[in-house]
Give the backbone structure.
Amino acid sequence: MSLRLSTVILPYRRWHEGGRAAWTRAEELGFHTAYTYDHLSWRSFRDGPWFGAVPTLTAAAAATERLRLGTLVTSPNFRHPVTLAKELISLDDISGGRVTLGIGAGGTGFDATALGQEPWTPRERADRLAEFIPLLDRLLTEDAVSYKGDFYSAHEARNIPGCVQRPRLPFAVAATGPRGLRLAARHGQAWVTTGDPRLYENGTPEQSLQALRDQSDKLAAACDTIGRDVSELDRILLTGFTPDRGRPLESLDAFVDFAGRHKELGFTEIVVHWPIPDSDFAADEKVFEQIAREAPAQLG
């Protein structure tokens, strides 16, 4: 299977001051998918411009024709399945069926407290995701849904005509723990990981590869438990959070080596951050574009 190359474009620029240009350029360069982060604000960008994911993706859908679009990742931190489903169906329609929903449990960043709540514990986040994903699945595939759970409810929620993509737009479930991997196995069309965060500061690339191999094995076991072939799921690596950090973008050869080693683990898609000067995602734009143009052919 060929390895797909995708990018994630952070929504920190005004649309008419470089925002639009990045999305159209991503299509010109041949990226498979361009994602964006679905946060209210994020890390070092908190005190600067930051725009909403769904409006940004809607504008990107209107500005492009072939490029797939998606979130990495949406979470229950400030989303509700009923309202999210309506937005996703609309976005899928506007894009002509080019949307992938990256979805995960969220974390303890700014999103976790922006609505005035205390940050949820890892268990609480997992509990909510375990209810959020199945309900969203129903909302995107059924004309009318009523449901009352521990965290979310829906009363005769209508979602006609449904998604352009059938039976619904694909879910890319971000997970490393057993509960999240079971959700990916049951509801996902793809699985997303950033690696093992415990290795980011002091780990080695070899340790990271082993951690990813272990995660992949656990995904396969979760699929086996429900009788699903794990090969049905795409495996997506969001780069920038492993011990390699930005080194794979230093040259075409460095990236091909990095991506090739992860392809051997079964990954089907590698996602790189669009360069952002003076940030953790700084990179030479000429090298970045060379990677986009030439790496996929070398990786097969």
Q: What stands out?
A: The first strand starts at residue 4 and ends at 8. The mean pLDDT is 97.
